[in-house]
User: Fold these one by one.
Assistant:
Number 1:
Amino acid sequence: MSKAILTKAANYCETNKYRFTEPRVEVLRIISSSKTPLGAYEVLEKLGKVIKNPKPPTAYRAIEFWQENHFIHRIESINAYIACDAGHRHKGSQFMICDDCGDVTEAHLCDLPKPLKDSATKNTFTPSRWNLEIHGQCRKCLSI
Ligand SMILES: [Zn+2]
Ligand SMILES: [Zn+2]
């Protein structure tokens, strides 16, 4: 999946005339090939293995770029980043985070769950983005 997302990102940058720079490519490769979410510092550390002495702002700007363009999501409650494996870009994200093994599963709902949407509508509030994070135990950890 790491390769697919890189191809998609390369096309996306070309279409939108964004630069597909080496730090951007490597940062996206690092985040998308990791099974668990990575903190910014871990990304920087891994980047140091492919690019000589990367400056922290270089890594952080690349992370920000992919986040703004919805190729990666930030998981607020654990302050880490994960690649989006949906075939399209979306506004809202929902994650199930296992507190035992750190495994993260994204639920690809493009809409807000109905009770939340109803509540927003009732308050004539227009949601533009959202991030739902559900903590618990994954199936693997529960069956141990
Ligand atoms: Zn996503
Ligand atoms: Zn688990």
Note: The first helix runs from residue 2 to 16.
Number 2:
Amino acid sequence: MDIVVLVKQVPNTTDVKLDKNTGNLIREGLESIMNPDDRNALEFALQIKAEYGGTITMVSMGPPQAVDVLSEAMGMGADKGLLLSDMAFAGADTWATSYTLGKAIEKIERFDLIICGRQAIDGDTAQIGPQVADFLDIPQITYVTDIETVSNKEVIVKRRLEDGHERVASQLPALLTILGGANNPRYPNIGGLLAACEENAPLAAWNAADIGVMVNDVGLAGSLTHVIKTYVPKFKRQGETLEGTTAEVVRQLIQHLGKSEGASACKAVAATCRLMADTKQEGI
Ligand SMILES: Cc1cc2nc3c(=O)[nH]c(=O)nc-3n(C[C@H](O)[C@H](O)[C@H](O)COP(=O)(O)OP(=O)(O)OC[C@H]3O[C@@H](n4cnc5c(N)ncnc54)[C@H](O)[C@@H]3O)c2cc1C
């Protein structure tokens, strides 16, 4: 069973600050860690490898220091690490990130399963897994909480729904996105960490040319979305108590609803209330 695990290096905080001018995340001065959901993804990959054999290749797109998460993953038991790093990849939106990861996985060729976290704690979009699966034209199962069985041809998993779980089977190759907390990721062992730091460690770095992409198709240049403005929405809750008889309160409410900007739903409610108030007067 050959497994590719996608892993992202993220700042060790969920309180992400944004650069007001560029709209990009401010990462300077923050400790970097392996994205938490990715630890769960790797843990499942390690369990599958223990039962069925095979190899685990970690893939990360990021700056040179993202090699740290690959080393950590190898300390946990992954076999190989592949860092996709190139100035041309900088500023990538989720589409350009998925395209770059997809092109690298295409070059790896042999894989039965791709496992990634559901969501990164900095970008927070949860788009990468589904987009990579779409790019590679393979089935995807999201929100996975348990991997029940894997055979040469099929994987059966449990995935979370809003109000329960469902069991889903997919042919292989397939991509799974794993929910945080789905398992208890193991700690890296010292021997594995030391081996990952040795010169002959199976760590490779690929740039744009290595994966055969044009620089205009990746990074900021290849991004389909561009940040126009970033801001923290302000929620103003100004409660107001309407006084008077029921009919007076309803009339005041109608006036308020009628004033709300362009809200056709509000106007419909206002019209209904008006009708009720006119017909029932005090009785609403
Ligand atoms: C216009 C624009 C510019 C941006 N510029 C930058 C920038 O300069 N630098 C920057 O770091 N980010 C930048 N971003 C954010 C970047 O696009 C996202 O962080 C990235 O695409 C991943 O999305 P996400 O964090 O929401 O991941 P999610 O979709 O939430 O992640 C889900 C899973 O996908 C996998 N995954 C996600 N990202 C990677 C990765 N890089 N490598 C391997 N696996 C991964 C992990 O398994 C993760 O758990 C930019 C975004 C936009 C819109």
Note: Residues 3 and 45 are 7 Å apart (CA to CA).
